[in-house]
User: Which sequence fits this backbone?
């Protein structure tokens, strides 16, 4: 409960500031957020490189760009809410902005999932070996078929 009170207090304090100062602080927070995400993903990538699983490296690699874009999209959504609260926003934007924000977030999630499928397919494609024996090898065509099915099942709902 203390964190919520702290955030509410910060918002109340910031209401007296100019819009430029508020947007500058918001941009600084977004830059720090991007830096934090880059550091966390780099450390996670280093730890996952030591595992035997191939899909975990691919998922972290696929999340890198969409996460950075997600931070900027959420920053833009919050910046528009600040702009709207300052009562300087045109009426047309007030109606359209929440829908645009929701579409962008859904598009970024779909982008991440499609990148993950593509990266996982590439990792397994390198390991795939056609064989006639009943071993544990993966056939290249099976890898590609599974990837297409996953790709379309993710793309159509998005």
Assistant:
């Amino acid at each position: 409960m203390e964190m919520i009170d702290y955030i509410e207090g910060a918002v109340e304090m910031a209401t007296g500031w100019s819009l430029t100062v508020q947007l500058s602080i918001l941009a600084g927070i977004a830059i720090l957020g991007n830096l934090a995400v880059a550091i966390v993903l780099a450390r996670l990538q280093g730890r996952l490189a030591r595992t035997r699983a191939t899909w975990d490296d691919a998922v972290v690699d696929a999340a890198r760009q969409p996460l950075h874009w997600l931070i900027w999209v959420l920053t833009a959504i919050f910046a528009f809410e600040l702009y709207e609260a300052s009562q300087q926003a045109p009426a047309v934007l007030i109606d359209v902005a929440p829908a645009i924000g929701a579409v962008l977030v859904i598009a970024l999630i779909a982008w991440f999932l499609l990148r993950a499928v593509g990266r996982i397919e590439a990792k397994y494609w390198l390991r795939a070996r056609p064989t006639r024996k009943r071993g544990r090898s993966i056939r290249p065509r099976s890898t590609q078929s599974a990837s297409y099915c996953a790709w379309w099942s993710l793309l159509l709902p998005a």
Observations:
- The helical segments are 2-14, 19-48, 55-85, 91-127, 140-155.
